[in-house]
Design brief:
The chain is built from 6 helices and 5 strands; from the N terminus they run βαβαβαβαβαα. By secondary structure, the protein is an alpha/beta fold. It has a single domain, classed as 3-Layer(aba) Sandwich (Rossmann fold), CATH 3.40.50.
Length: about 170
Amino acid sequence: MKDKAIFAGSFDPISLAHIDILKKSENLFSKVYLCVSSNIAKKPLFTMEERVKIAQAATISFPNVEIINSEDKLTATIAKEKQVRYLVRGLRTDHLFVNEYELAGINRVINPGLETLIFFTTPEYSLISSTVIRELLIRKLPIDQYVAESSIGIINEIMKRKKWKTTFSQ
């Protein structure tokens, strides 16, 4: 397929569940923009710049993925600018569906040609969330089974600067 897609999220930090969705997207689209976004409902552990660096490290082996800092723009607006017709969303559990449905509707109001495709995570990743990863990090517990191996070094470096000692493997 020659179309492009956007996969947006706060990615605080990007997890193996996100990577699972990204792999599925990359199989369908010639280019996937991974938009690292702000979410006013969430208080991030990592700054926007840190989340972008972690995402870059986690996606180093994805040649058709471009990381975008979309802190100050809506995803539907970025889609217009990049001439993208598809948004990719991941669904880990059924209770997240209503939120995704509403978000897809709002995005279509802002950008009428925009379609949202929902991918289900592989069952082994369905319990992985960025919230769980942040909880583990704050409590100095290992996260290596929840994040891409290529991102562990940068996460460790950032957490040390935050004066928190992490204990995950490398």
